[in-house]
Design brief:
- This protein is an all-alpha fold.
- The protein contains 17 helices and two strands.
- It has two domains: 57 residues; 237 residues, MetI-like (MetI-like fold).
- The chain has a two-stranded antiparallel ribbon.
- The longest helix is centred in the middle third of the chain and has 29 residues.
- The radius of gyration is 26 Å and the shape is globular.
C-alpha cells in the first residue's frame, strides 16, 4: 500500500508533463494544423454530415414531411430489395464486372509504372507519361462516342473486318463482349493515371540498393523482383484494400452510356438500378436502402481483407 501511495503522485506528475508537452507541440505546429483545416472541413461537410441520410432507408421518406416526420418502416425496403426478382442478377453482374476490373485492370498501372521506372531517358519518359495520362481527362460521354464510332455495325473496325473478307461483329450488342469492352475502356482511360502513386513510391527507393545489386551481378529482372516489387509491396496492398472497398461500385456513368436492351441482362448493375428506382420512379427510400446495403457489404469485405493482410504480417489500412 505504501508503495502504491508513493507511486501515484509521481505517475500523475508524469501524465501532467506529457499533457503539457502534447499541448505545446500543438501550438508549436499550429501552421500544419491550419493547413489541415480545409481537408477536415471537407470530410465533415461532405462525408460525415450526409451520413444522416441513411435514415431515409428506414422510412417512407416524404420531402414535405422531412426526416423526423416521415413514416418509419424499419427494414421493409431491404426486404423488398432481397425479394426483388432480379436481385441476384444485379449482384452477379456487379460482382463479375468488379472482379474483371480487379484482376485485369488493377495490375496494369503497376506494370506500366515498373516499365516507366526502367526508362533512363527523361524526355522519352515524360512523353510517355503525358500520353498515358491524357485519357483520364476525357469524359465518359466522349469515350462512349468514340467506342460507338469505332465498334458499331458501320464503324471503323467492322469496315476493316469486311474489307479483309470477314463479316461484321456486333460489338456493342453482344452480351459475351460487353464486360470485356467495359474493362478495356477502364484500362485505356485510367491505367496511366493510376501509375502516379506507384511512380511516387518507386522514386523513394534508395539508388544505392540498385548499385549494390549491380555489383553483385543482378540483372534487370532480378533487381525488379528482389528490390523494386518488395519496396512498393505495402503501396500495392493498401491500394488493393481500398479497391476492395468499391467492390460493388463499377461506375454508373460508363455502364449507363454503354448499356442497351440487348446487353441489359449482363450489364445492369446496382448503380443503374438505383438510377431507375430513385430518379425515374422517385423511390428515394428504396434507392437509399440499396446504397446502404452496398456500403455495408463493402465495409465487411474490407474488414475481412484487412484482417487477412495483417495476419500475413503486412500493414493494413488501419
Amino acid at each position: 500500500m505504501n508503495y502504491q501511495s508513493m507511486q501515484t503522485p509521481l505517475n500523475q506528475n508524469a501524465v501532467r508533463r506529457r499533457t503539457k508537452k502534447g499541448i505545446a507541440a500543438v501550438f508549436q505546429d499550429w501552421d500544419l494544423y491550419l493547413l489541415a483545416i480545409p481537408g477536415i472541413l471537407y470530410f465533415l461537410i461532405f462525408k460525415y454530415l450526409p451520413m444522416w441520410g441513411i435514415l431515409v432507408s428506414f422510412q417512407n421518406f416524404s420531402p414535405f414531411l422531412g426526416f423526423w416526420k416521415s413514416e418509419w418502416v424499419g427494414f421493409q425496403h431491404f426486404a423488398e430489395l432481397f425479394a426483388y426478382d432480379h436481385f441476384w442478377e444485379l449482384m452477379r453482374n456487379t460482382i463479375l464486372i468488379s472482379l474483371y476490373q480487379l484482376f485485369f485492370f488493377f495490375p496494369v498501372p503497376i506494370i506500366l509504372a515498373l516499365m516507366l521506372h526502367e526508362v533512363t531517358r527523361p524526355f522519352f519518359k515524360r512523353l510517355v507519361q503525358t500520353v498515358i495520362y491524357l485519357p483520364h481527362f476525357i469524359s465518359w460521354v466522349v469515350i462512349a462516342s468514340i467506342t460507338f464510332v469505332m465498334l458499331s455495325g458501320g464503324g471503323v473496325v467492322n469496315h476493316v473486318i469486311e474489307a479483309m473478307g470477314g463479316s461484321s461483329v456486333n460489338f456493342l450488342s453482344s452480351p459475351q463482349i460487353f464486360r470485356t469492352l467495359i474493362v478495356s475502356q477502364d484500362i485505356w482511360k485510367e491505367a496511366g493515371w493510376g501509375t502516379i502513386i506507384y511512380l511516387a513510391a518507386l522514386a523513394g527507393i534508395d539508388p544505392q540498393i540498385y548499385e549494390a545489386a549491380v555489383v553483385d551481378g543482378a540483372n534487370r529482372w532480378k533487381r525488379m523482383w528482389h528490390i523494386t516489387l518488395p519496396s512498393i509491396r505495402s503501396t500495392i496492398i493498401i491500394l488493393f484494400l481500398l479497391r476492395l472497398g468499391h467492390i460493388l461500385d463499377v461506375g454508373f456513368e460508363q455502364i449507363f452510356l454503354m448499356l442497351n436492351s440487348l446487353v441489359r441482362g449482363v450489364g445492369d448493375v446496382f448503380e443503374t438500378f438505383v438510377y431507375q428506382k430513385g430518379l425515374i420512379e422517385g423511390q428515394v427510400s428504396f434507392s437509399t436502402a440499396v446504397g446502404l446495403f452496398k456500403s455495408v457489404i463493402s465495409l465487411i469485405i474490407v474488414g475481412i481483407a484487412n484482417w487477412i493482410v495483417k495476419k500475413a504480417g503486412e500493414e493494413g489500412i488501419y
